[in-house]
Design a protein that fits this description.
- With 271 residues, this protein is α+β, with helices and mostly antiparallel strands.
- The chain folds into two domains: 2-56, no CATH class; 64-270, Fumarylacetoacetase-like, C-terminal domain (Fumarylacetoacetate hydrolase, domain 2, Alpha-Beta Complex), CATH 3.90.850.10.
- It is 19% helix and 36% strand.
- The strands form three sheets. Strands 1, 2, 3, 4, 5, 6, 9, 10, 12 and 15 form a ten-stranded mixed β-sheet that branches. Strands 7-17-16-13-14 form a five-stranded mixed β-sheet, with no helix packed on it. The chain has a two-stranded antiparallel ribbon with strand order 8-11.
- A hairpin with a 2-residue loop joins β13 (191-198) and β14.
- The chain starts with a strand and ends with a strand.
Length: 271
């Protein structure tokens, strides 16, 4: 079951499997429910006309996006190269406690075909394609979407305490193109693909699967929700295993395409 969000003449509207849901429907209200009640509720809602309009990020303005770091071996290796204190990432990779950090509020998230940005005070910027878990109020994984955790590698590498500046700024968080609602055990070995085009030429292309993650999804969710409540649900980026070479940096007008399972998000870079 696929949930998508659109900007139409009457405002923002959610859709299920391509058909508009009632205007009163919000994702926040849905994620207040236990997972066993979510799908039955969606099936009782009257579905309207086919969804036509501009795609929007599949998140409500008040919801939060969090992220996990160094969950793949490739990510640890990349952080070693960029950082002035490289051993800190080895310690995080091997530690029982994962790295978790706040990424964005829903109103700042961009959706499919919306622009992502690179910071004016950074010279080394990369996309980070990630599977993004959707978690309800009861701490249950209820689905996933595709995400781009755009990051400034030089800022984070200069000092780990600069992580919020490297990760949190306008246009640094993209989600799309919708939310695939499913059981947690269906989210296994999901393929993740990244392609970056510049002047209509592919300058980077690679893929990986979530099977190679160091940590489990349930482990990340347990730590995130251990001492924090999310009454209207939360999104959790689960880390990236696809990192372009050290000589690569995003440039304005680059087009970044990310596929996570059957979900796709594409964004053009602005400065």
């Amino acid at each position: 079951m696929l949930l998508t969000k659109y900007s139409i003449r009457d405002g923002m509207r959610w859709a299920m499997d391509g058909h508009l849901l009632p205007s009163s429907f919000t994702l926040s209200t849905l994620l207040e429910l236990p997972s066993k009640a979510m799908i039955p509720l969606l099936r009782t809602l009257s579905q309207g006309q086919a969804a036509l309009g501009v795609e929007a990020a599949p998140i409500d303005p008040n919801q939060e996006v969090w992220a996990a770091g160094v969950t793949y071996l490739r990510s640890r290796e990349a952080r070693r190269v960029e950082s002035t204190v490289a051993d800190i990432y080895d310690r995080v990779y091997e530690a029982a406690r994962p790295e978790l950090f706040f990424k964005s509020l829903g109103w700042r998230v961009v959706g499919n075909h919306m622009p992502i940005r690179i910071r004016a005070d950074s010279h080394w910027n990369v996309p980070e394609p990630e599977l993004v878990l959707v978690i309800n109020h009861q701490r249950e994984i209820v689905g996933y979407c595709a995400g781009n955790d755009v990051s400034s590698r030089d800022i984070e590498g200069e000092n780990p305490l600069y992580l919020p500046q490297a990760k949190m700024y306008n246009g640094s968080c993209a989600l799309g193109h919708g939310i695939w609602l499913c059981e947690p055990d269906e989210i296994k070995a999901i393929p993740i693909q990244l392609k970056i085009q510049r002047a209509n030429e592919t300058v980077f292309s690679d893929e990986i699967t979530t099977f190679t993650m160091k940590r489990t999804f349930s482990e990340l969710v347990e730590y995130l929700t251990f001492e924090m409540d999310f009454p209207q649900g939360v999104f959790l980026m689960t880390g990236t295993g696809l990192v372009p070479g050290n000589e690569f940096t995003l440039q304005p007008a680059d087009v970044v395409s990310i596929r996570v399972g059957e979900l796709m998000i594409e964004n053009q870079v602005e400065s």
